[in-house]
């Protein structure tokens, strides 16, 4: 693949279907606080975003992968073209589509923002991490900071003047955040001296923004151990002058950058705070020792963002593999495989290639639906707050419940689906002439950062399912059940809906099994041993449901178009995505439920020495 050549592609028709036909964007837009938005405005934004993704970000994807970032004299320099792309990104307003007007944004529904992010991330995940992290950090300050902090930091971080990061991980404290050793010493003027080293800091330094605002977890001298003793601090790379401009260095140094398997255009930094004991930060807000709860506001958004990264790359891999399969001729048609004189067929005619393509297509469409559904819940919760508190609580609860599914299932499937795209290419996919090998390398990190898959699984079974006395989970199951009852006898999808019903029943039975384990201390280890499996089961039920929901909508719409209309074939595609998933994935839920009842503890029973004799 030549440097500077765009390979990103997607299908806006598919995105429009999910946004407008399946989830009713027009029913959310046009009402406060989204009065200025409607389907036409959303389509215009997405069309323009797709142009920018293909013309600006897409050509830089391979450039960033080949060049990576470099450190010179303690400063990070991003790959060729990134700095100009950053400027254009903000000039054209793509990162402020969903930002509140009070902070200089356009105030769109989250449903539109997540689709914009899919296009930007799909075209260049490494680049889009920089503004994404600044956005997340700004949201924390906007929600938790003082009015003065909001005025000083938020708009500059949202409009690209300043970048932003989240600084949790330390060399000895990865997922175990409570073991952090970074310290904060109170100064007489209300500020704090910050000291410590943070690692794996995405976008920890770069040359695209004037300043970088770090959100740093540290322990104030004398605070209690563990996560309860942590506070969150605003620590600029450059100190802020009285007039709000960036001033002198703030004793924040780049120790090094990591050389990684993928996302090479994203600078993953070791950051040293206060090596000269002259790093000054200020508490986010006014309350000490609430750093974890504040940081989790950014973490939850970041986890959704990782799910979006996953769908962006899986979708890009799919459309590239599909084009290659239509063009590449290899072997004869399967009906003539014994005829050596038969003409070579495009590989899309081979059954196994078609199987792989449909598998990717179904997962991409279903995961995108899951992400947009979560965004719809966010939008409705915001609209209904103070008007219908019960309904708003329902929507907020579904956001809580679905977030670990979006993060974990999308990230795990992205890596698998990108690797499957390589398989469609065959040997050609393994070389850098085609983009799918980079997509695969880039996507592996998604299941690791912002909380590993197992952290998401334990969050689901240990926290989210029990919230509100289990009400959120029960409401989710009720939503699936209502769909099943409405369509169990559907002329086209009746059998597939019955498969969904069987999977739902298996999921509910497994939820009761897990609950039983939580009540029996002797069986508690079965929960972490099985949490990932349960998360997969619930994700598969959710995706299977949404694919069938889309197929039912498409079946009805198909009746209004002629057989030669492009939408006829498009709607047929929705049918087979749903049927494939129902027939080939949903049965896994029942099997997984049976495996849970075995209560296998062999990973705990095996001794350390028995793992290997070396």
Automatic annotation (TrEMBL):
Q: Which PROSITE patterns match?
A: ACYL_COA_DH_1
Q: Which GO terms of the molecular function aspect are on file?
A: acyl-CoA dehydrogenase activity; flavin adenine dinucleotide binding
Q: Which UniProt keywords apply?
A: FAD, Flavoprotein, Oxidoreductase
Question: One GO CC term of this entry?
Answer: plasma membrane
Which part of the chain is the Acyl-CoA dehydrogenase/oxidase C-terminal domain?
A: 291-460
Work out whether the entry's keyword set contains Chloroplast.
no
Q: Which InterPro entries match?
A: Acyl-CoA_dh-like_C_dom, Acyl-CoA_DH_CS, Acyl-CoA_Oxase/DH_mid-dom, Acyl-CoA_Oxase/DH_mid-dom_sf, AcylCo_DH-like_C, AcylCo_DH/oxidase_C, AcylCoA_DH/ox_N, AcylCoA_DH/ox_N_sf
- Superkingdom field: Bacteria
Q: Name one Pfam family in it.
A: Acyl-CoA_dh_1
The chain positions of domain Acyl-CoA dehydrogenase/oxidase N-terminal read: 40-160
Q: Which cofactor does it need?
A: FAD
Q: Where is the Acetyl-CoA dehydrogenase-like C-terminal domain?
A: 476-606
| Domain Acyl-CoA oxidase/dehydrogenase middle residue range list | 166-273
Q: Which family does it belong to?
A: Belongs to the acyl-CoA dehydrogenase family.
Q: What is this protein called?
A: Acyl-CoA dehydrogenase
Origin organism of this chain?
Myxococcus xanthus (strain DK1622)
Starting at the broadest rank, the lineage of the source organism is:
Bacteria, Pseudomonadati, Myxococcota, Myxococcia, Myxococcales
């Amino acid at each position: 693949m030549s440097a500077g050549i765009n390979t990103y592609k997607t299908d806006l028709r598919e995105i429009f279907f999910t946004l407008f036909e399946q989830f009713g964007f027009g029913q959310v837009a046009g009402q406060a606080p989204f009065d200025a938005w409607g389907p036409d405005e959303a389509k215009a934004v997405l069309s323009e975003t797709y142009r920018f993704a293909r013309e600006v970000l897409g050509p830089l994807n391979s450039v960033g992968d080949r060049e990576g970032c470099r450190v010179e004299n303690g400063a990070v320099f991003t790959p060729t073209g990134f700095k100009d792309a950053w400027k254009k990104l903000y000039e054209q307003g793509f990162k402020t589509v969903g930002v509140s007007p009070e902070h200089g944004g356009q105030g769109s529904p989250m449903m539109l923002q997540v689709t914009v992010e899919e296009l930007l991330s799909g075209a260049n995940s490494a680049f889009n991490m920089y503004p994404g992290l600044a956005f997340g950090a700004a949201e924390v300050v906007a929600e938790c900071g003082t009015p003065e902090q909001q005025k000083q930091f938020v708009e500059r971080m949202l409009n690209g003047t300043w970048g932003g990061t989240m600084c949790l991980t330390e060399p000895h404290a990865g997922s175990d955040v409570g073991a952090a050793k970074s310290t904060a010493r109170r100064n007489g003027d209300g500020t704090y001296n910050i000291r410590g080293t943070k690692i794996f800091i995405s976008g920890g330094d770069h040359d695209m923004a004037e300043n970088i605002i770090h959100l740093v977890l540290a322990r104030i001298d004398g605070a209690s151990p563990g996560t309860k003793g942590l506070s969150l601090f605003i620590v600029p790379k450059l100190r802020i002058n009285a007039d709000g401009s960036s001033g002198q260095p703030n004793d924040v140094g780049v120790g090094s950058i990591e050389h990684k398997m993928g996302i090479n255009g994203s600078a993953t930094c070791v950051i040293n705070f206060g090596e000269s004991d002259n790093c000054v930060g200020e508490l986010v807000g006014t309350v000490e020792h609430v750093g974890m709860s504040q940081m989790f506001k950014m973490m939850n958004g970041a986890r959704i963002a990782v799910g979006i990264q996953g769908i962006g790359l899986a979708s890009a891999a799919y459309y590239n593999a599909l084009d290659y399969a239509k063009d590449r001729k290899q072997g004869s048609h399967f009906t003539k495989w014994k005829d050596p004189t038969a003409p070579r067929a495009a590989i899309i005619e081979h059954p196994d290639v078609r199987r792989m393509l449909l598998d990717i297509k179904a997962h991409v469409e279903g995961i995108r639906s899951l992400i947009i559904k979560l965004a719809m819940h966010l939008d409705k919760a915001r609209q209904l707050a103070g008007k219908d508190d019960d309904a708003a609580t329902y929507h907020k609860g579904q956001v809580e419940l679905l977030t670990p599914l979006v993060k974990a299932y999308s990230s795990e499937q992205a890596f698998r689906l990108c690797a499957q795209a390589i398989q469609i290419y065959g040997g050609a996919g393994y070389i850098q002439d085609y983009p799918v090998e980079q997509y695969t390398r880039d996507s592996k990190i998604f299941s690791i950062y912002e909380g590993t898959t197992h952290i998401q699984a334990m969050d689901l079974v240990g926290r989210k399912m029990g919230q509100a006395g289990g009400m959120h989970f029960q409401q989710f199951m009720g939503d699936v059940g209502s769909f099943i009852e409405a369509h169990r006898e559907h002329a086209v999808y009746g059998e597939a809906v019955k498969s969904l019903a069987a999977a739902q029943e298996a999921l509910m039975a497994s939820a009761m099994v897990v609950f039983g384990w939580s009540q029996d201390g002797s069986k508690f280890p079965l929960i972490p041993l099985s949490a990932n499996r349960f998360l997969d089961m619930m994700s598969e039920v959710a995706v299977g449901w949404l694919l069938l929901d889309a197929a039912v909508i498409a079946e009805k719409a198909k009746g209004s178009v002629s057989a030669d209309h492009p939408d006829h074939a498009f709607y047929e595609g929705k049918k087979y995505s749903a049927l494939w998933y129902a027939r080939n994935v949903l049965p896994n839920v029942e099997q997984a439920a049976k495996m849970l009842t075995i209560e296998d503890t062999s990973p705990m029973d095996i001794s350390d020495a028995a793992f290997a004799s070396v």
